[in-house]
Structure formats: structure tokens, C-alpha cells
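Sequence, C-alpha cells passed on for absentees:
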Amino acid sequence: MINIFKRKLKTDRQMEIEDIKKDIKECEFLLSRNDIIFNMAVDEKLIESKIYEREALLHQYDYLVTQLREKQKEAVTVE
């Protein structure tokens, strides 16, 4: 009975890890798109908005990487 419970937790953790990895990939894509638009922008307001957007994306990326590390650490300690 306990082994079944551990397997279920491991599966849930692995799904969470995969979801976080997808979110990180999406964030990386958005950062790349932000860089492209920033480099092509000439309007000061657009440039400023892309700077703020980049900062927000970098904070989101940092948060996701931290979450991924924590979930991976949890997955290793359970095994």
C-alpha cells in the first residue's frame, strides 16, 4: 500500500516538473521575442515598455527555475 502511494507522488511530482519546464521554455521564448522587438523599436514608449516587460520576464524566469530546483530536490529525496 505504501509503495503505491509513493508511486503516485512521484508521478505527480514528475508532472509538476514537466509543467514547470514547459513554463520555463515559454518564458525563454517570450524573452527572445522581447529582445527582437526591443532591438527593432524606435518609439521611446515602446522601448520603455519592453524594458519593463523584460524585467518582469526575468523575475518570472528566476521564480520558475527556483521552483524547478525545489521540485527536483523533493523528487530525489522521495526516491
